[in-house]
Amino acid sequence: MSSLTDFTMHELHELLVRREVSAVEVTKAYLDRIDGVDPKVGAYLTLTPDQALDQAEKADRCLARKVEDATPLTGIPVGIKDVICTRGVRTTCGSRMLENFVPPYNATVIERLEAHGAVMLGKLNMDEFAMGSSTENSAFHPTHNPWDLERIPGGSSGGSAASVAARTCACSLGSDTGGSIRQPASHCGVVGMKPTYGRVSRYGLVAFASSLDQIGSLTRDVTDCALLLNVISGYDPRDSTSIPRDVPDYTLSLIPGLKGCTIGIPREYFISGLDPEVERSVRDAISALESQGARVEEVSLPHTDYAVAAYYIIAPAEASSNLSRYDGVKYGLRVRGFKDLTDMYKKARSQGFGPEVKRRIMIGTYSLSAGYYDAYYKKASQVRTLIMQDFRNAFEKCDVIAAPVAPTTAFRLGEKTGDPLQMYLSDIFTIPVNLAGIPGISVPCGLSRDGLPIGLQLMAGHFGEERLLTAAYNLELVLGPWKNWPTV
Ligand code: GLN
User: Exposed (0-12), middle (13-18) or buried (19+): which is 418, by Cβ within 10 Å?
Assistant: First the structure.
């Protein structure tokens, strides 16, 4: 018999509505597992057991009163990336700068989860201000990959991916600016969805790079992904980039068969540097999609080569502006012992931010400065337009694009910390999706010889989430969900 923490969200929902278990029992099972497992994994920064038990009791009251009022999230324990504001619960962004920041309000996604009866277990570790690909940039502690504790879980939503894989939450929310949901999902063997820019409200998401940031989900399977997307999607007048467009029932996209679907394979994503084991697994997954009736066609995204360079101008430029609010007055660390105002700013920012954040602020400030703006920011924005055009052209020939998520499986802790450029290059296949604002999903497609998960990335045009879910669901039908989650 599997333990309660092994079930997917939709399996738990069945047990809850049949009253075979209570939400309090489920929550206690998760809190116990966190106690036993999280000291090894390090996915959580803050635990909220009292609040979780209150929410679970409330869910049980709802289930007892009128079971039809229960939603697929009623009584489901979730974890939240610590970049999403939670009223009364510390939200650190993985930074000393916000170590004691307690938001006075909830992000819209948190309000939606609460309205649907979800139970929040706590806040999850991340690279500081979501800058990084390994969660080693957290100011507090690294997170370990549950499949191999010597390895990174990916990043920046490393805690969100590791906790879902370690079964210390049933699902989680993350954010994705250049790959931060899809890459850790791939490294931890979970399903990670970055929705279309504007699909999910970012009100209450601490900003990194505003033209790229998007909140999304990390789940154990594709059905859970559709269920969570149903809840978090939709227009929000409090986010000016949110798009007023109806939210379909995403579970209606979970249908077997891919007849009439053309899958594009981008030539530029199968390059030297791509680990042969990753390539084999991704190509096998594409064959699996073919076996479900999809047609496969080669496509070209000719400007892919320039995506990382353009991203590392645009994202730091926006970050340098967004992070200027942390001055120790309105927000951020207030240091002791300063001579004057300038000295206070200097001390707050040099003690509050870690090295990667400082590097980004310097790159961003430089590339926006007078005389350099045209050469850097403007040029990068033009490259971004070419990348969008590449996708538009490709989607005239296909419905979904399939590619690797990351060039390798999870690397070892410490392996890339000394070389930022190597770290940046690990995002080569995920960044173009953010530059174009389109949706992308990472679905587990196999294990390497070392037993490390490999993800298939699927991409679609704007608001093509339904197509992504159909394709991802069909992959799961052929491969089956994981039979053995990692034993931690
Ligand atoms: N790894 C990328 C970076 O460091 C992407 C991060 C993200 O998506 N938040 O910027």
Answer: exposed
Q: Looking at residues 328-357, what average pLDDT do you find?
A: 93
Give 439-463 as a DSSP string.
Answer: -EEEEEEEE-TTS-EEEEEEE-STT
pTM over 0.85: yes
DSSP-derived pairing of the beta strands 191-194 and 262-266: unpaired
181 close to 403: Cβ distance less than 8 angstroms? no
Which residue ranges make up each domain of the chain?
4-253+410-454, 305-381
pLDDT higher than 70, residue 1: no
Report pLDDT for 330: 83
Residues 191 and 184: their CA atoms lie apart, in Å, by 10
In this prediction, residues 158-184 reach a mean pLDDT of 98
pLDDT of residue 331: 84
- Evaluate if residue 70 carries a pLDDT over 60: yes
| 424 CA distance to ligand 1 middle (Å) | 8
Q: Which CATH number fits domain 4-253+410-454: 1.10.1420.10, 2.130.10.10, 2.102.10.10, 3.90.1300.10?
A: 3.90.1300.10
Measured in degrees and rounded to the nearest 5, phi and psi for residue 379 equal -60, -45
**In sequence order, what are the beta bridge partners of 403?**
457
CA 160 to chain centre: 7
Average pLDDT over residues 66-94: 98
Task: Report residues whose beta carbon is within 6 angstroms of any ligand 1 atom.
Answer: 130-133, 156, 176-180, 208, 315, 427
For ligand 1, atom 5: residue with the closest CA: 178
Cα–Cα distance for residue pair 488/43, rounded to 1 Å: 13
What pLDDT sits at residue 484?
A: 81
Q: Which two tokens stand for residue 428?
A: 């080569």
